[in-house]
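Researcher: Can you fold this with inosinic acid in place?
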Amino acid sequence: MPQLLIASTNPGKLREFQEILGGEPFELLLPAQLGIFLEVEEDGATYAENAAKKALAYCQAAGLVTLADDSGLEVEALGGAPGLYSARYSPIAGATDADRRAHLLANLKGVARPWKARFHCTVAVAAPGRGVKLCVGNCPGEIIPTERGTGGFGYDPIFQLEGRAETMAELESAEKNRLSHRALAVRAAIPILHELFGV
Ligand code: IMP
């Protein structure tokens, strides 16, 4: 079976990549399984730059077709913040996902609801000698003031999906992995992977 390296160390994302790509005819590998430990600074001006940088760095290190993503939460009333900085959105050193959710809600205090938002994901696929290809996915919804649900990760407990009563954290993982920004971007990348692997 052809091998696909998933260039991420975020456990929440890794679980989702594994579930979304689970039925595909390629073996998923993680950097640690290959003894690869890279620190790739996410200093790009766009999701695309960051995703491409990660995918290329791991692709070069492993010599394997590599998939990486860069994702974030964009809140309309905050001018699109935290966006690219979603993973670092808290003044607390060593902040947790809960700290970042609290910081977001503090910044929305006094702002009239609904707090429209969307999750965005850009996926980059890098192949040795064949450059990088990009796919995107968006998932609209709104931020709610009280956390609900225990699934997913990150901002999921305060993100209610558009047209639904549930937060992202209240969905079964199979359903999140059908509807999410990451699911949409990864599914758009599947034909690219099939072509690269000739499967
Ligand atoms: P990065 O893609 O590693 O820069 O991290 C993106 C950050 O955006 C994550 O650490 C989360 O805080 C947030 N994020 C991205 N995707 C999701 C999701 O599916 N659910 C909740 N939060 C997410």
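Model: Folded with inosinic acid in place. The first helix runs from residue 11 to 20.
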